[in-house]
Structure to design on (951 residues):
């Protein structure tokens, strides 16, 4: 089946989300739609899937224009979609989920047997390893995604739309998904792959269509370099690698020892983590979401209830203090989710920029706020951090995601810090803003601040890290150098300790002189500082080879 | 890629742009909400008028020959509704048949008198709303405030000025304690404030009823549950002379409005409370104590309601009965709702409700329209005030669904 979008335009009032977009998805093809958040990818796919009617232009199947009045029509025409957020009923079995909406019945009773058979057949053909009788909520995320794919395949989808499918996956699951995509292509299913992760896009696509501000700006092959793709996506040259000097290292600003967080239900969420962060160093914590990273950052700033162990910042104990006291010691904190934890949506940009600083002498006198000072401060920050807003009095919720994140970053970096803790500092942020935020974080490091970054995006970890710590099920798998291969990090993220994954002398990576490194000593020093600790945390595995 | 055929312009229902990036978005919602409040009042009045017309005796009579002369029915309906509202206006704002200017404006002062406790209690409810708490307990807070104010008023004997201040402080304290209990329980145990306040309303009501049977509280020689009258010194002086009931409590209400406006918009405490109300998780992450915010706001809300109780004791009633709070505590919720929980919105909504109350009596006596119609209009207002947010919520959800994915 050949699927064509012919000059599709979609307008919302005066706003043009898609402007004369044309593209063709051939059979046996993985066609990637690459673009920043808000470029119009999702709108386009919603047109394709029958959720929107195009303002002008048409969707054509095998050259015949078709009109979909809803997803049901699209499905019937052989288009299947796997949404970024899964549309599964957690307490149902796989078979029940697949049958949902298309149940076959025998009299008044539900007939799942045919569905089960279909699932087994598909599962076998593509090596999905999905049990039709497993309950969905018990399955790992990667398998749940396969259930979504099965749902589409059961309905004979010939074109499969995958909307940001790798956002929730571990590197290994991502590789497995890419392999599945290739198999589907071999068997004749064409795939529309929506993503902004350049590495994956290049690895699997046959054709890459780059969309910017609702228009197709280029159609290129997978041999295009990541820098070129990024430039096409953003519309100007972007450097994805942050230029930075080696870390200064020396001593430890933050010393974490045996930090443990227990959840409400008694589950240990963070288990005896030991780590150090030197002043002027970025320690990036990698790991699949939900392995204790959130708890680590929240425990540091006093947002967790049941914490034991110790975290000393320049000799002062942070565990047991309230959030306000911790922040008062010069800790900047960027929470994982800006809209729920970082910003008050109905507050203005100016108010959000002082959300944790309104008691500073600068912004209040006695019980009253200095509204003038707050507005002036906001004006300066908006310029310095390039926050695109109509006015500092606009509600922050009206800003785009990238600009909202810049508000949080500006607030937290806008005062002298001794420790900067950021969780997912660039989640859901466009490439241009990512570049900016990364540069600001490195600049903060260069002033001698200890920086702890949590990220589930390995690209971000590699871009920023001076050392990389990996968490798995709340335990530290080890701390390794910034040049540790992706594959090794992936194995650590799946639960293998560093000593088992990284070759015997892991620090060789950081000691290999590279042309940009002039101050080799610093690198070695910071590496040395990490070595005994990584061995110590592997205690449970009992083979401290280091 | 196939050669392009002429792009066929299709009929398209245009949806709004996915995100609103305009700077005046906030201003527009503010204007919109004021407009919504006004529309809610107007619509409720229209429907109320219809109800008056339909229940009117004459209208029913003319409807008997509706198909012969429909004009009669409509004329009768118009007469019934308009005369009811004219009577209400005469009772609430301006009475053309009053003696002299003071007589003509007497209804307006009555409105303001009735509005005083409504404004004060309404401010308490609005303040709690802004911190994310649904304070149903203004009634109980008024009662406890009034009780303490009355007790200080009749059992202490202090010089002029000092006594009134003591009564004001006592009323504020009583309300603050009653509200503070709620804040404390919510902060400590996570109990829901709606349940707590409703239950404390009952406790307060029965507490007052019980106190009024005690020798120290019940008026000597009276078998009714009524306390002795407070001292002359404990009463609010009349604002416009002895002919009018309007007292200095109204000035207290104005000052309270100014104070709450300052607190919410220009003080650090207000900043915290608003942050706690708008996004408690973000507030907590920013180092603001959410639980402390609950306690503080309930203390303040109770204090304002307690002042409403004081206004009743020192301003109009002068002695404690278990009916001293009337239904002010519950009307305060609708007043705050109609005022969109802003201080000045609450102030004017309070005056409007005061007018309904003052005018309703006149309407009943002059036109025979049942005063309950006022209750219906008030209820309709609440309904219409609550309706637009529901509508916008529904449309917004649909829009999010469209834009998402």
């Amino acid at each position: 089946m050949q699927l064509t979008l012919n000059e599709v335009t979609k307008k919302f009032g005066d706003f043009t989300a898609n402007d004369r977009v044309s593209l063709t998805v051939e059979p046996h093809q993985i066609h990637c739609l690459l673009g920043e958040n808000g470029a119009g990818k999702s709108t386009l796919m919603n047109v394709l899937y029958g959720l929107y009617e195009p303002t002008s232009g048409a969707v054509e199947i095998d050259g015949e224009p078709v009109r979909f009045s809803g997803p049901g029509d699209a499905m019937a025409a052989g288009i299947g979609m796997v949404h970024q957020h899964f549309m599964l009923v957690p307490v149902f079995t796989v078979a029940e989920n697949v049958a949902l909406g298309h149940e076959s019945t025998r009299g008044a009773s539900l007939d799942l047997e045919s569905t089960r058979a279909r699932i087994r057949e598909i599962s076998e053909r593509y090596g999905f390893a999905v049990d039709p009788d497993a309950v969905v909520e018990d399955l790992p995320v990667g398998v749940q995604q396969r259930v979504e794919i099965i749902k589409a395949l059961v309905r004979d989808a010939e074109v499969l739309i995958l909307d940001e499918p790798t956002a929730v996956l571990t590197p290994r699951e991502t590789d497995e998904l890419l392999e599945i995509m290739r198999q589907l292509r071999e068997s004749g299913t064409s795939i529309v792959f929506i993503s902004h992760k350049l590495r994956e896009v290049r690895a699997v696509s046959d054709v890459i269509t780059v969309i910017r501000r609702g228009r197709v700006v280029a159609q290129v092959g997978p041999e295009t370099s990541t820098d070129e793709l990024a430039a096409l996506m953003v519309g100007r040259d972007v450097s994805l690698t942050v230029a930075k000097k080696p870390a200064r290292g020396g001593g430890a600003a933050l010393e974490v020892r045996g930090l443990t967080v227990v959840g409400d239900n008694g589950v240990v969420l963070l288990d005896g983590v030991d780590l150090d962060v030197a002043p002027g160093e970025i320690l990036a914590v990698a790991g699949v979401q939900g392995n204790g990273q959130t708890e680590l950052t929240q425990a540091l700033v006093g947002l967790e209830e049941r914490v034991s162990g110790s975290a000393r910042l320049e000799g002062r104990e942070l565990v047991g203090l309230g959030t306000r006291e911790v922040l008062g010691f010069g800790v900047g904190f960027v929470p994982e989710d800006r809209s729920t934890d970082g910003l008050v949506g109905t507050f203005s940009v100016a108010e959000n920029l002082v959300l944790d600083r309104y008691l500073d002498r600068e912004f209040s006198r006695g019980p009253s706020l200095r509204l003038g000072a707050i507005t002036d401060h906001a004006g300066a920050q908006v310029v310095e951090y390039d926050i695109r807003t109509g006015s500092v009095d606009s509600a922050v919720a009206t800003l785009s995601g990238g600009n909202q994140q810049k508000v949080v970053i500006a607030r937290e970096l806008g005062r002298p810090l001794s420790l900067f803790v950021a969780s997912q500092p660039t989640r859901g942020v466009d490439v241009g803003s990512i570049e900016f935020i990364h540069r600001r974080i490195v600049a903060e490091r260069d002033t001698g601040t200890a920086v702890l970054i949590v990220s589930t995006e390995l690209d971000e970890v590699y871009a920023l890290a001076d050392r990389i710590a990996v968490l798995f099920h709340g335990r530290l798998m080890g701390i390794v150098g910034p040049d540790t291969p992706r594959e090794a990090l992936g194995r650590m993220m799946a639960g293998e300790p560093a000593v088992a994954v990284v070759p015997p002398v892991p620090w060789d990576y950081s000691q290999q002189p590279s042309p940009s490194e002039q101050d080799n000593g610093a690198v070695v020093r910071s590496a040395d500082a990490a070595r005994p600790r990584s061995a110590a945390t592997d205690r449970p595995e009992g083979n401290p080879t280091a | 890629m196939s050669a392009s055929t002429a792009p066929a312009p299709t009929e398209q229902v245009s949806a709004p742009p996915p995100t609103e990036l305009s700077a005046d978005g906030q201003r527009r919602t503010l204007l919109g909400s004021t407009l919504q409040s006004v529309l809610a009042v107007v619509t409720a009045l229209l429907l109320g008028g219809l109800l008056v017309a339909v229940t009117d005796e004459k209208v029913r009579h003319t409807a008997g020959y509706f198909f012969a002369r429909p004009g009669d029915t409509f004329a009768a309906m118009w007469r019934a509704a308009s005369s009811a509202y004219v009577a209400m206006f005469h009772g609430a704002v301006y009475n053309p048949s009053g003696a002299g200017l003071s007589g003509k404006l007497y209804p307006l002062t009555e409105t303001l008198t009735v509005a005083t406790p409504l404004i004060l209690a309404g401010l308490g409810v609005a303040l709690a709303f802004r911190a994310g708490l649904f304070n149903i307990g203004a009634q109980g807070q008024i009662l406890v405030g009034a009780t303490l104010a009355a007790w200080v008023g009749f059992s202490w004997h202090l010089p002029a000025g000092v006594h009134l201040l003591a009564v004001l402080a006592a009323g504020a304290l009583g309300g603050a304690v009653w509200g503070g209990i709620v804040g404390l329980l919510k902060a400590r145990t996570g109990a829901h404030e709606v349940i707590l306040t409703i239950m404390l309303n009952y406790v307060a009501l029965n507490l007052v009823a019980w106190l009024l049977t005690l020798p120290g509280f019940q008026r000597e020689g009276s078998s009714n549950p009524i306390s002795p009258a407070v001292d002359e010194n404990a009463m609010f002086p009349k604002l416009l002379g002895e002919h009018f009931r309007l007292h200095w409590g109204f000035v207290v209400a104005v000052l309270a409005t100014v104070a709450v406006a300052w607190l919410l918009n220009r003080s650090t405490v207000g900043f915290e409370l608003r942050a706690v109300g708008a996004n408690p998780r973000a507030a907590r992450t920013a180092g603001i104590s959410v639980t402390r915010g609950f306690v503080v706001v309930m203390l303040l809300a109770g204090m304002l309601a307690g002042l409403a109780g004081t206004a009743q004791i020192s301003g109009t009633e002068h002695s404690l009965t278990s009916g001293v709070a009337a239904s002010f505590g519950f009307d305060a919720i609708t007043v705050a709702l109609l005022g969109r929980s802003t201080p000045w919105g609450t102030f004017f909504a309070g005056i409007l409700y005061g007018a309904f109350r003052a005018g309703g009596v006149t309407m009943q006596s002059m036109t025979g329209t049942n005063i309950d119609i006022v209750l219906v209009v008030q209820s309709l207002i609440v309904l219409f005030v609550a309706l637009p947010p529901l509508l916008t919520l529904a449309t917004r959800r649909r829009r999010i669904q469209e834009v998402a994915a």
